[in-house]
Amino acid sequence: MALLTITWGLNWPIMKVGVTGYPPLYFRTLSMWLGLPVLWSVLRVRGVALTIARRDWRAVGLLAVTNMIVWHVVIILAVQALSSGRAAILGYTMPIFSAAWGVALFGERLRRRHVVGIAAAAAGVALLLWHEFDSISGRPLAALGMLVAAACWALGTQQMRRTAIAAPTLAIVFWMTLLTALVMSAATLAFERERWSTPDATTLAAIVYNGVVIFGFTQPLWLIMARTLPPLASSMSVMMIPVLGTLAGAWWLGEKLHWQDGAAIVLVLVAIGSVMLPGRRRPQRA
What we know:
mainly alpha, 77% helix
């Protein structure tokens, strides 16, 4: 979880630098095609079979849409319009949407400490956005798109935990990534073909980082967590990512920090602890 937080948190300013002056969909497409051989190599080393039963392909496609396709298309477009910190904060409203999906669609019951965690996460996100509302209002479509992507990703997290696909998670991740790469390739071919160019050294480094680290390690790790942990726990466990993304953006890209950022970090830690720490067990009678 610590490695996931670090690699994903640092990736927000890295993506911002990578898509500055470069076609965003093409950037993401190159990253995915670079990451697929890395992911395939991991499967080979671990001896994981890529076989998916015919009856499960529809479910794999649906999981790819909610967990990856909508998310990756929207965030790479939004991060070009918004600051890396704002994009990360809006994207990681996902745990709040995940809790709402769980109650609305899957009949989950929220414990008191879960409600406290969701409230703390919401307050932390609001504090992180305290000085950003004026800027975001100037880019309403990008901000709205990030919220839609977060809601879609939250639904995918719930679906991933409940999937009945009889295949290893890494095999599912490989095929989901391949499907997403094909969709991204079609999108950049349709809308960005005239802007394709050879990336400079900085953009190439960002592509390599996304391909090897994000699609070869972080994304598979997250989806394994999403299938293993309860949806609310896995969702809330990534709440430190927008905090790290905001801090990294301030250090690297010169985005200003305020006292609200420190308060938000405390609230996010409370939110994570409320759902991740084990509850008290009542003593059993003899």
